[in-house]
UniProtKB/TrEMBL annotation:
Keywords: Endonuclease, Hydrolase, Nuclease. The lineage of its organism: Bacteria, Pseudomonadati, Bacteroidota, Chitinophagia, Chitinophagales. The keyword Hydrolase applies. GO terms for biological process: DNA restriction-modification system. Residues 24-125 form the Type I restriction enzyme R protein N-terminal domain. Pfam families: HSDR_N_2. GO terms for molecular function: ATP binding; DNA binding; type I site-specific deoxyribonuclease activity. InterPro entries: HSDR_N, UCP035009_HsdR_All3000-type. This is Restriction endonuclease. It comes from the Bacteria.
Length: 359
């Protein structure tokens, strides 16, 4: 099972079982530990995952973080857990206190469903107030799975994560702002666009109120147009893919119309049949004509070629096959020369009879 499937399977399970999980401790065991396992960590190996990791705070000794993921005896990720029904917003101050007392570069605040990932982008050794990445098992997006995968034991690289953390953080915040503005444009947002299109005078409050609704409507129409275009492109692609087999058939039909089976080719076919009649019933010997050669087959199977007649040039050839189906051409001065290859033709067919080719 790949990482994406493992995460989605975990999400399905915890959504199904959440009502059975009554306490914070149960959330750790039923939700958080399986999540860490999905990230490739052995939760029962204290060299990898340390429960109740001690993070002393100055004169306060014995302060504990729920879990620490450890590498080379040093914590690399601190994890603070809450009950699955808890709102995480009031709780990050506790993790904030622990962060600067250890060498961990990342911390996770989670309720089993939502995981908020923090680092120290704003100030070294001081945990940022806002997460740079949030992953919610109730609302999984494929692009987020790729970001989550960076925290997998196999792929974990501190420098790589830090290099993308800033972009993730600000893109996430910008998306949140755009979502807010999309649903209810603020006056500043509305004013930004209204100034570019309204030329009839001063932007009074009445005009701004009017443009607030117009801006919201324009946003909705724009998004709907984008969706419509995507759907049209997808449908056109599907129609093209469906039309492709018809086009192939048309080309094949056109090529078939150009094939002319000559009497000389039929005479050669009859000679081969007469040679092989002492080996197999002649009804098992068939032919298929093509533009560049005339193929004689055993049991009308392209994977059982007996020989090929190449009669389209000034010189005529018979193509014979070895056991590896490699063709070798031999010149024919007349059709009677086909009899010179009788033994080879018989051996070829005998080989198919003794060792049937799977279709």
């Amino acid at each position: 099972m790949d990482f994406k499937d493992a995460i989605k399977q975990l999400a399905d399970r915890i959504v199904k079982h959440k009502e059975l999980v009554q306490t914070e401790e149960a959330t750790k065991h039923s939700f958080v530990m399986p999540f860490l396992q999905a990230l490739g960590y052995d939760v029962f190996n204290p060299l990898e995952v340390v429960p109740e990791f001690i993070a002393d705070l100055g004169i306060k000794k014995g302060e504990k973080v729920d879990y620490a993921i450890v590498k080379d005896s040093q914590p690399i990720i601190l994890i603070e857990c809450k009950h699955w029904s808890s709102n995480l917003d009031p709780h990050n101050s506790q993790l904030f206190r622990y962060f600067h007392t250890t060498k961990a570069k990342f911390s996770i605040l989670t309720n089993g469903f939502e995981c908020r990932f923090y680092t120290d982008l704003d100030e070294p050794n001081k945990m940022d107030e806002k997460p740079f990445f949030t992953f919610d098992l109730r609302d999984i997006k494929d692009n987020q799975i790729e970001e989550l995968k960076k925290f997998h034991k196999t792929y974990f690289d501190t420098d790589n994560i830090v290099s993308t953390a800033s972009e993730l953080k600000y893109v996430g915040q910008l998306k949140a702002i755009l979502n807010t503005e999309f649903n209810g444009p603020t006056q500043d947002f509305t004013r930004h666009f209204a100034r570019q299109v309204y030329t009839a005078g001063i932007l009074t409050q009445k005009v701004l109120d009017q443009f607030t609704q117009l801006t919201k409507k324009a946003f909705q129409i724009y998004v709907n147009d984008l969706i419509t275009e995507r759907l049209k492109s997808a449908l056109q692609k599907e129609e093209t893919e469906q039309a492709a087999p018809d086009a192939i058939e048309a080309v094949a039909a056109e090529a078939e119309n150009k094939i002319v089976t000559t009497q000389e080719e039929l005479d050669a076919f009859n000679i081969v049949k007469s040679i092989l009649r002492k080996v197999v019933p002649v009804g098992k010997i068939n032919y298929r004509d093509a533009q560049s050669y005339f193929a004689i087959l055993f049991e009308d199977n392209n994977r059982k070629p007996v020989c090929r007649m190449h009669f389209n040039s000034s010189k005529k050839y018979i193509g014979l096959f070895n056991s590896d189906k490699v063709e070798t051409r031999h010149e024919l001065t007349s059709l009677d020369d086909i009899f010179n290859h009788a033994d080879h033709l018989c051996d070829t067919v005998k080989n198919y009879v003794l060792k049937p080719v799977e279709v």
